[in-house]
Amino acid sequence: MVPGANSELRPAHVDRVLPTLEPSVVLVQMEIPPETVARAAALGQGAGARVLLDPAPVPASLSDALMTNVDLLLPNEGELATLTGLPVESVDAAARAAATLRCRGVRAVVVKRGSHRALVVDAKSARSVPAPRVDVIDTTWLCTGMLVCCTALGFSSVGPFLAPVILVAVVAAGIVSRPRRYRVATP
User: Fold this and answer.
1) Dist. CA 59–CA 30, nearest whole Å
2) Cα distance between residue 90 and residue 70, in whole Å
3) DSSP states along 83-106
4) How far, in whole angstroms, is CA 42 from its chain's centroid?
5) Which CA distances in Å does 108 have to 50, 181, 187?
6) Angle at 65 between CA 64 and CA 68, to 5 degrees
7) N or C, which end of the chain has less CB nearby within 10 Å?
8) HSE (CB half, 13 Å, CA atoms) of 61?
């Protein structure tokens, strides 16, 4: 890994490569410049791909242009609070905060609430998804495991099957974030 390399990725790089991939899912994080994230999301939507955004590390805000190209936004509670400026301590408060992001164009929001479950907020409802109890030693693997599982399960719609996909993703994330001696397999 080359320190600082992510900051060198530009929209022109995405323009050259992403269309050749014909993706069904585009997964982006805020570890690259915001304009590059926005371009990847726009190209992904334009190609008919589902766009997943993990807003980490969380910026002070996300542009409306980016938000309208995101199918699934996956913030943790702290990121949700930063992005909305709203309290997120309870399920109801987190659901209200997530709904404000949906009003900006995001099709669904999955709030990663740690041991308090995940919260799925879409056009129809806000639903809690149970989280298994695990001794997490690596929160990077926890978040990455959830994202990879959503992608691997072929996240194909924001609709009635989203909550079960997130349930499997939460369980998989719990497995990969445990101490190695407890892992059966890494998805």
Assistant:
1) 8
2) 25
3) HH-S--SSHHHHHHHHHHHHTTT-
4) 16
5) 11, 35, 24
6) 80
7) N
8) 6
Tell me the C-alpha distance between 95 and 102, whole Å: 10
pLDDT, one tens digit per residue, over 74-107 is 898 999 999 999 999 999 999 999 999 999 999 9
Task: Record the tokens describing residue 126, joined without a space.
Answer: 């806000």
- The pLDDT of 14-25, averaged and rounded, is 90
pLDDT in tens, 145-176: 555 555 555 554 555 555 555 555 555 555 55
Q: Which two tokens stand for residue 2?
A: 């080359």
**Mean pLDDT estimate for the chain:** 78
pTM of structure: 0.78
The average pLDDT across 54-60 equals 89
Class of domain 5-131: alpha beta
Backbone angles phi, psi at 25, to 5 degrees: -140, 135
